[in-house]
Amino acid sequence: MTLPAIDLFSRSPAQVRSCLLGIGVATPQAVEQEKLLQLALKVSCADAAQAAWLRRVFRSSGVERRGTVLADSVNDFYPHAESQADKGPTTHARMQRYAEEAPRLAARASRLALVDSHTSPSDITHLLTASCTGFMAPGLDCALIESLGLKPSVRRLHIGFMGCHAAFNLLAAARDAFAADPAARILICCTELCSLHLAYGWDPGKLIANALFADGAAAAVMGTNTDTVVAFPELIDSSSLLLPECADAMTWRIGDHGFEMTLSPGVPSPIRQHLRSWCEEFLASHDLKIADIAAWAIHPGGPKILDAVGAALNLPEASLAASREILASHGNMSSATILFILQKIFSQNLSGPCLAIGLGPGLMVEGLLFNF
Prior knowledge:
By secondary structure, the chain is α/β, with parallel strands linked by helices. β9 and β10 (258-263) form a beta hairpin. The strands form 4 sheets. A 5-stranded mixed sheet has the order 1-7-6-4-5, sandwiched between helices. It has a 4-stranded mixed sheet with strand order 8-13-12-11, with helices on both faces. The protein contains 12 helices and 13 strands.
């Protein structure tokens, strides 16, 4: 007898009702932007003109302080370049430091998320992790199972090298998992150590990244809201858009001396051109308009990206305040950043729909629609 096929993802979002039950964030020791500027000048600039340009980039980045696992040893880890051919520590040396530091930071954020959601580690059925700044095996998932005391049978998924929007993909995957198992309790953790990839030498695309990126971890617990008193943010839907002819606008590649990011100054242009139509179509599928959104969680790829998103959607400056505040106080922590912003927004006790938007290599746009 042939059994009928079952579509495990056929439930509607309203039936699944996957909610963010708690968020936890963690950063290493913060360093003033000016100190990191002095480091960048030491390893990147060959003359006064280059130094003047780099100062302008750092001081217009919107970043005031950034966390780094190298706070107490940054000058030892990144010594002065001995020649123009010197590109700093090898990728092997950087990955050794990642393996030492990333599991601890991930565990800190995850414990806070478990506490915030009133969830016991033994209740976690799924563990979803993301990182684009390091590789190791066994990975962060195995480290978290041991350090948090999760069940050894927990279902695992790791997303690597997706960049700044990886948290969007984790949250969307978690929502899909609820369609298969509405009783699931899912722990999500994004961990990024961007400061391990400081670029040496003169390459403006890489130096812009040097001015923006930081270290941080963020975790969230998702489950079905059974509390009749507390209203948790509900994840309604997700949407993606690959912008045309933008493959080289934002890249993230593995080199011999760290992972190499490039950011083109042309990134804001396709955002202004394409973002609004995608956003309107996504919202319309839920009978919403841009004006109906109560809060905006925009990943702060940089101040010009925030400006471009605001212009494309005609948003008031107040709508970008949470994103600019996180950028100023923590820098761009890649995939972890959006959960910092969501935590800040959800603490304001607003009500209504919230749209989160992130951009990553590709250029790929990711969106998440919440209701709270």
